[in-house]
């Protein structure tokens, strides 16, 4: 199993950073999620030493994404990265996105095995440039089946909220196909949640790629409560 990208959350409040880790861990249990909140003495503010230690703790060889809550947290994180004696082998990125929404989306992408660039795109709400598992320079192969489409009725009584949306994103990432749900790219947690789908609504699942049929079947099964 591929070791996931690590995530560091830099907040002026230790409680906020800890809370984001707690929330993200519900949907990304294998991802290194490290809080770097508050000052060294537990006050409100940020700490270079905490960020440096957090980057080291989050690094498992695939890179580290650092997300801050306010402008000065980003500045602290960027300065800490500059002070690293030895940057993570997989690279380190500092991203200025909403710490909760972006952090959870990044965690779900990392849980799905995405690389550092893809995890950063997920945190920003950007769609993946190509389906998971596809290769840009693949040799000529027989033509893949055409796009597949099916309709599901959303069974979850709470609608497509964060946890089932995260499960959908992780599921879609398993297939060599680009999957959409009501037109939203299923590789983006933020786009899926933004649909605001409620229980009982009809959902159109579409996929294009070698695994399109299997992807549609699996996503429909998930939405209708069969997985």
From TrEMBL:
Entry annotated with the keyword Cell inner membrane: no
Function: Component of the dihydroxyacetone kinase complex, which is responsible for the phosphoenolpyruvate (PEP)-dependent phosphorylation of dihydroxyacetone. DhaM serves as the phosphoryl donor. Is phosphorylated by phosphoenolpyruvate in an EI- and HPr-dependent reaction, and a phosphorelay system on histidine residues finally leads to phosphoryl transfer to DhaL and dihydroxyacetone.
Record region (Disordered): 127-148
Entries under InterPro entries matching the protein: DhaM, DhaM_N, HPr-like, HPr-like_sf, PTS_EIIA_man-typ, PTS_EIIA_man-typ_sf, PTS_HPr_His_P_site
Composition-biased stretches (Low complexity): 127-147
Keywords: Transferase
GO biological process: one example: phosphoenolpyruvate-dependent sugar phosphotransferase system
Ranges of residues in domain PTS EIIA type-4: 4-132
GO cellular component, one term: membrane
GO terms assigned for molecular function: phosphoenolpyruvate-glycerone phosphotransferase activity
Catalysed reactions, semicolon-separated: dihydroxyacetone + phosphoenolpyruvate = dihydroxyacetone phosphate + pyruvate
Official protein name in the record: Phosphocarrier protein HPr
E.C. no: 2.7.1.121
PANTHER family documented for this protein: PEP-DEPENDENT DIHYDROXYACETONE KINASE, PHOSPHORYL DONOR SUBUNIT DHAM
Subunit structure, as described in the record: Homodimer. The dihydroxyacetone kinase complex is composed of a homodimer of DhaM, a homodimer of DhaK and the subunit DhaL.
């Amino acid at each position: 199993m591929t070791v996931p990208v690590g995530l560091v959350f830099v907040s002026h409040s230790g409680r906020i950073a800890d809370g984001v880790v707690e929330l993200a861990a519900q949907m990304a249990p294998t991802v290194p999620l490290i809080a770097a909140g508050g000052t060294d003495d537990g006050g409100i503010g940020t700490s270079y030493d905490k960020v440096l230690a957090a980057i080291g703790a989050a690094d498992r060889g695939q890179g580290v994404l650092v997300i801050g809550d306010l402008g000065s947290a980003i500045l602290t994180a960027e300065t800490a990265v500059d002070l690293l004696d030895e940057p993570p082998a997989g690279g380190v990125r500092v991203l200025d996105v909403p710490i909760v929404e972006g952090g959870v989306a990044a965690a779900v992408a990392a849980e799905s095995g995405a690389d550092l660039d893809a995890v950063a795109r997920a945190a920003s709400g950007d769609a993946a440039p190509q389906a998971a598992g596809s290769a840009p320079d693949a040799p000529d192969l027989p033509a893949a089946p055409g796009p597949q489409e099916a309709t599901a009725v959303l069974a979850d009584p709470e609608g497509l909220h964060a946890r089932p949306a995260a499960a959908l994103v992780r599921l879609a990432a398993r297939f060599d196909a680009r999957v959409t749900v009501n037109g939203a790219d299923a590789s983006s947690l933020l786009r899926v949640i933004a649909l605001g789908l409620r229980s009982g609504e009809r959902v159109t699942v579409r996929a294009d790629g070698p695994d399109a049929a299997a992807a549609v079947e699996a996503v429909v099964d998930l939405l209708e409560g069969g997985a």
